[in-house]
Amino acid sequence: MADKAQNNTAPPAVTQTAAAAQSLVASSTNPSAISTDPAKYSEIGMATVFGACSGFAAKKLAKTGGLIVGLGFMSIQALVYADILKINWPRVESIIIGPLDLDKDGKLTTKDVQVGTARFIHVLTTDMPSAAGFSAAFLMGFRYG
Question: pLDDT tens digit string along 7-26?
């Protein structure tokens, strides 16, 4: 009989899982035991989803823009090579670099890219509940998109 009594007891892992489930049920009825409320999770989730989607879209736009600029440059160079068109490249460079030189040092450098990226992220995260979640997800969407 003693053997039958021992066989009816649950294994330690099941007992611990049951105790954890009871603890979870008990804490869910006591709001002070929960450190974050569901609204914050939804805000973080929304910012993360929007960040990933924005990063994905930004990468696709950058690729498309690169394709258009590259094809345009190759077309112009083909016309120059065929002696149909003459381009003043120093003038074109000054026209293009003017608006892209964000730190106004007269050169297009990595600092200009950093300033542009910071401005872009600032515009996208204005009034966003979780700018950190948005930014991290944006980078992930841009990298893997």
Answer: 555 455 444 444 544 544 44
In single-letter form, the type of residue at position 59 comes to K
Output the DSSP codes for the chain.
-HHHHHHTSPPHHHHHHHHHHHHHHHHHH-GGG-SS-HHHHHHHHHHHHHHHHHHHHHHHHHHHHHHHHHHHHHHHHHHHHTTS----HHHHHHHHHHHH-TT-SSS--HHHHHHHHHHHHHHHHTT-S-HHHHHHHHHHHHHH-
Residue 7, classified by CB atoms within 10 Å of its CB into exposed (0-12), middle (13-18) or buried (19+), is exposed
**Contact between 128 and 134 (Cβ < 8 Å):** yes
Express each pLDDT in 101-110 by its tens digit: 888 887 888 8
Return the amino acid letter for 135. Answer: S
pLDDT for position 40: 62
Higher pLDDT, 37 or 135: 135
User: Global pTM?
Assistant: 0.58
Contact 134, 124 (CB under 8 A): yes
